[in-house]
Sequence to fold (179 residues):
Amino acid sequence: MATNSNHIDVVVEDDNWAKVAVISEGQCAAIFDAVCDYLTNQKINVCYDLLKSGKSLGAALVLSNAEQVRQLNAEFRKQDKPTNVLSFANIDADDFRQIVENDDIINLGDIIMAWEVLVDEAKQKKISAEHHFIHLLVHGILHLLGFDHQNDDEAEVMESIEIAVLGLMNIANPYEEFE
Fold:
C-alpha cells in the first residue's frame, strides 16, 4: 500500500553535495515513501496516527557542512561538535495536533546533514557516501515521525526499522561491525 505523495524540499548549502547522486528531491521523496510504507505495512504506529491520516507528509532536507551543523548542535543540543545529521521535528510543537487536524500537508520538520562528517564516516565504514546518505536520511525521517534512541529499547526499535528499510533498498546493515 503506497502512501500519499510525500515530499522533501532539498536545500543545498554546500556544493560538495553534488558528489552524492541520490540527492534529487524525487529520490529523497522515494526514500521518505519507503520509510512510511514499511511502517504502514508492518503496522508500526507513529505519533498522531500520521500514516493513517490520509494526508501527505512533508519535510525539508538541508545539505550543509560541519561548521553549520556544529553551530546548530551547540545551540540546540548543547554539544559543541559537528554530527552527521540533526533533525528538528515539528511533532514536538505544542500545536502539532492542530496542524495534523487542519492542514492538508503535514510538515514534519527539518533534517540537516554535514557533508564532511558523512564522507569521513563513510570512509571509516568502507561504504559509499550515497549509501551512508540514504541511511542518515532514513534515520532523520524516523526522528521526524517521533522515533528516538535515548535509551536502549528505543535505539533497538529505531535501528531495526532502519536495517529493514535499508535492506529493502539492498543496502547492508549499517550497524554491523566493519573491517
